[in-house]
Amino acid sequence: MKLKIINPNTTAGMTAKIGAAARAVARPGTDIIAVNPAMGPVSIESHYDEALAVPGLLQEIAAGERAGMDGYVIACFGDPGLLAARELARAPVVGIAEAAMHVASLIGASFSVVTTLDRTRGQAWHLAERYGMKRFCANVRACELPVLELEVPGSNARQRVLDECRRALAEDGCDVIVLGCAGMADLCRELSQALGVPVVDGVAAAVQLVESLAALGLHTSKRGELAAPIAKPLRGLLEGFTLPSQDPLAA
Amino acid sequence: MKLKIINPNTTAGMTAKIGAAARAVARPGTDIIAVNPAMGPVSIESHYDEALAVPGLLQEIAAGERAGMDGYVIACFGDPGLLAARELARAPVVGIAEAAMHVASLIGASFSVVTTLDRTRGQAWHLAERYGMKRFCANVRACELPVLELEVPGSNARQRVLDECRRALAEDGCDVIVLGCAGMADLCRELSQALGVPVVDGVAAAVQLVESLAALGLHTSKRGELAAPIAKPLRGLLEGFTLPSQDPLAA
Amino acid sequence: MKLKIINPNTTAGMTAKIGAAARAVARPGTDIIAVNPAMGPVSIESHYDEALAVPGLLQEIAAGERAGMDGYVIACFGDPGLLAARELARAPVVGIAEAAMHVASLIGASFSVVTTLDRTRGQAWHLAERYGMKRFCANVRACELPVLELEVPGSNARQRVLDECRRALAEDGCDVIVLGCAGMADLCRELSQALGVPVVDGVAAAVQLVESLAALGLHTSKRGELAAPIAKPLRGLLEGFTLPSQDPLAA
Amino acid sequence: MKLKIINPNTTAGMTAKIGAAARAVARPGTDIIAVNPAMGPVSIESHYDEALAVPGLLQEIAAGERAGMDGYVIACFGDPGLLAARELARAPVVGIAEAAMHVASLIGASFSVVTTLDRTRGQAWHLAERYGMKRFCANVRACELPVLELEVPGSNARQRVLDECRRALAEDGCDVIVLGCAGMADLCRELSQALGVPVVDGVAAAVQLVESLAALGLHTSKRGELAAPIAKPLRGLLEGFTLPSQDPLAA
Amino acid sequence: MKLKIINPNTTAGMTAKIGAAARAVARPGTDIIAVNPAMGPVSIESHYDEALAVPGLLQEIAAGERAGMDGYVIACFGDPGLLAARELARAPVVGIAEAAMHVASLIGASFSVVTTLDRTRGQAWHLAERYGMKRFCANVRACELPVLELEVPGSNARQRVLDECRRALAEDGCDVIVLGCAGMADLCRELSQALGVPVVDGVAAAVQLVESLAALGLHTSKRGELAAPIAKPLRGLLEGFTLPSQDPLAA
Amino acid sequence: MKLKIINPNTTAGMTAKIGAAARAVARPGTDIIAVNPAMGPVSIESHYDEALAVPGLLQEIAAGERAGMDGYVIACFGDPGLLAARELARAPVVGIAEAAMHVASLIGASFSVVTTLDRTRGQAWHLAERYGMKRFCANVRACELPVLELEVPGSNARQRVLDECRRALAEDGCDVIVLGCAGMADLCRELSQALGVPVVDGVAAAVQLVESLAALGLHTSKRGELAAPIAKPLRGLLEGFTLPSQDPLAA
Hints:
Chains A, B, C, D, E, F: InterPro entries: Asp/Glu/hydantoin_racemase, Asp/Glu_race, Hydantoin_racemase-like, Iso_Racemase_Enz_sf. 6 copies of one chain form a homohexamer. Chain A folds into 2 domains: 140 residues, 3-Layer(aba) Sandwich (Rossmann fold); 105 residues, Rossmann fold, CATH 3.40.50. In chain A, 40% of the residues lie in helices and 15% in strands. In chain A, helix 1 crosses helix 8 and helix 4 packs across helix 8. The first copy, chain A, has 8 helices and 10 strands. The first copy, chain A, is of the alpha/beta class. Chains in contact: A-B, A-F, B-C, C-D, D-E, E-F. At the A-F interface, strand 3, helix 2, helix 3, helix 5 and strand 10 of A face strand 3, helix 2, helix 3, helix 5 and strand 10 of F.
């Protein structure tokens, strides 16, 4: 099985970390291809960043379909471009926020999300609503930690994340922690040991879910909203995103 | 990995079919132990049946914990006893309705459930609400098919399920079908081929999800609502369900 | 009118207290039969306890129907087995959580529930949702009081309940208190006097509601989800729960 | 016990019918005082009618409090002025839509409301939402029957209501019928016999609920939103509605 | 364009202030007619007050329709009589709570309402739900300020409103403030400057929205629930509210 | 006042029509600048199209801020990029779906949306939820009409839209129609005349709402989620979207 794990920002170090987290949980025989787009922002911390990360992400999905991938993970907690990616791909696509929230709802009564910047909390709540997971979401908490600070050796990022998780358990009445950033994937095990409750990393969770969908022979439904996009001209800088008019995906 | 797949009714033929469906999707190296309780109703088609299926189910969970199972599937679409089972087990427990609905929400815009008797539709809607999946559930449809008729060779059950799936696609605007009974597990592939949309069988989906949770090292949170039950005397016919007062699960 | 008040746990002292609370508010001419099952847990403080209290409860309902009861109260705040009991009975069945919440919504803008153990709060919220009462429920608060401590003379249970009620009024913005345990029935009057707001005990409320339904000539609808369960064999320890195949309830 | 049943329109014939329905279910010893205001519309079929029925209704509540009533029923399915009445009264106040919906939710899985004019359906849905009963309400159906036609001997009103109830059962999947107008109170028994499912009349239901609240010693909470209104001058035509500045209700 | 701004209480000083706020934002060429009814309470701080403010308000709407108004604003944050007014008028009618909440949802992620008395908070939440704005409403906060104290020169009302706004920003996570009383209209600009976030006054917002509806050629739909009320007799003190039986509005 | 109306697709003919619709309702003195991006798809009929329309749209917003625009309209019924645009702009930004739904909720009890392709219905429902307008939305209906067919002289597009509006009124119980595509702006008046109910075009509605926000002196809140995006490098094809690191918008 070949899975493409797409870090939608353009920071290669983070892509490497995400790839390692994916490989650590992938089934034997699964080939993890971790990539990031050639275009777009170095980190995703706003709706603006997210919007501009999506074209590069879609390019990776389209290339993946041509290369016969068996599934995709969108490895940013805002799950940017998820529905557009599902239109483009027949193979299943899972976002890491989606994966983490679904998994958390299977092992506890409620979870708190611990994320980076306060300004991204709205998007996490929005996704919880879209996925039906709002009823399990006790709180979304920010550490006021820029995404890329998680990549800086020697920063106090780990400690701040741990402290916020402790506050979540003490104040929110939750019994599971969801990590709210792909850049926290490497903290999952130590947080879980320190906290004594399950801690869910979306990258690992999404890898497992996509593998499961593929193993079940399930693809994205091509009936209705998620059918292949209608081929049509694109202009200007984005001309290259024009889909072939005899769209092989529609077959 | 050892997974216990519990058919909560006492019909051994159905247990065998469920076991086969589980084994067909299990990972190499996963040992599927398909069982049904020694006590309880031969099929589950009412709240009464469901209530009386739960003690036997819990007995199987308790025995499974003593035997070191890595996870459990509750293989009845009403997901009977799910929260009580989660209290009892540290290993993850997933219900087939829960699994099928979650999986369906990852591959389409909305699903319709096709189930057996009209009187069970309320429970399916209730579960959709509890799991946050109501927003993805276009409809719950019944074939007015008693559960055990699915076990009768030569019955027209297959055709009636197929017809109801066709009505779902034509009238509900859904793009995925969820099979609403463990006894339909063997119909999944042919229905999917006939309908041209993804069809989700909860048994297979639940096996994949439990394997995923176990592979992620995630167990049921023992903090709060799902902590091990407080040991206390049980009386009369159910005396045997008294938990040991030094409960090893609480550790 | 003959009403059966079923304490679903097997602690006779609590049954006696519940019976007294029921008789204190029953109409002249109403015969209160307070019972507890012969089988099951001594108190109900988990999903496990609740699941194992239900068979004994259903046995009492079935016996009640044979004896011509005019209605039933399920006297545990988790309302265990309510829908199964409604299937089994033609006479109306009311749970005490259900009764208390409905009554509270008629006399105030919002209520807080004060219950026993923190781990049971999830079930109270779940019931509030099922009954449509979530919008009136300001909070569910636990005193961390084991159910049977309410039965111990000289314990500080009364004071702890009173203190938690005071916190509810101060912090939740509620204007009514709902007592979250059948074992608190005898505290209702004194709490109301101490707090100066209406305090609702579910046992008394449920007796009034069942009497009202009976007086209105209303029975449980036997059309659809709550029709009599389909008769079928039960096996093993629960064989005795097999319903007669010519089910007189279905008539 | 003295209960005031207030028909908020000014049609005395309808008041008499409502009074009879109330007396038919009241407990022995309950004194039913059925009244209608001296001012306001002859029937209530719009928001305009409802708004202008409220002052007269509130006058009856205020007079009732001075006369020491033990409870009130607002006998119009729009439940006009319910919260204002609760502010004014210490004794409990119940609306007939509220009562009917609550009662219906205790005896079935879902109800359909059968009401008079199509234009009043929005208000019925609105009340279902306010009372938390929307989840039990399968449909609100209109017979396109003006309220006062129910008072005309020899009209085909009875038949039209029966026909609409039959359609509700056939099309809505409900198992209980709620009558959506106080003027239908006298049809309840015959409809129930013809339909074979429980039919709930709000007038009878509300009498039972108010009697229950009074028997439980429960009054409207005077803490917060429903406290007695602050006394202040009213001007012009409504000057007479000025409350005494030393408001005895506030005590 | 002629707009009638109706202060539904009978305090002329407040009407003048509201009129000034309306004129300050009205388009050139818009004629603002600010009025208050001749009958009703001097301020609106309870459901009782609100109910008794509505007849006078409706009288002003009816007179407005005869005078050919192009639109109406109901200038009290409880939006009393809104649906009845819409039945009566063909020209658009907007309430100030409705206007403020809609506008706030267009410029921020969430708003807090700062209002007068604690007892009116329930009505503000109720309106937020009715208008679909509950998801944007972070909190409703009261200053415990009687409405007419806002009219008293030299009171500390301004400071108390400002303090509560500051608490809202610090504690609620909102990014917009909605003023919860027509009597606060004159504070909007200075609060916005002091707080550094948008502050929305409903009077100004409603004037803009009604002007917009009129400019778009949109009137209240006369199909269904908001069609002109059916003409019928009114009795007693309210006889004058009888609509002409040949209702010109229905045409 | 200078308003920029952005058609997010690259079809200039449609931009001209949208500009004309905007000018037809703009206030005297408002300067309407109708534009479309230089890059992106020729029409927006999928999540893919929408994602690829957003960069060009954001470029227009950024240019607009530099040019001192007083407000923006996003003239596509999917409201693409709305939150990213709000981050980028201090001046108010309104989407046409948002505007049309809000306006419709002020003049009727419920609306139906009549849109182009069936596959876009999910997005319309999603927006209705996000804006709180789901409770007013009776239905979203598609004519199976490609967006650009609305631009073809002599097509039967007008008739198909009219027919679908008629079905909406007959079957959905709505009292207002919302046009679900910017390309239908020119049909609004004739549809309204043919149907006899208010018909809302989002382009006109959005122009009015943005003018209103600007007239009220309200800008997008720059506190929290909608604050200016954090400046950071963008790579590759989208390098030009890098914001200046001394972001003047953040001040």
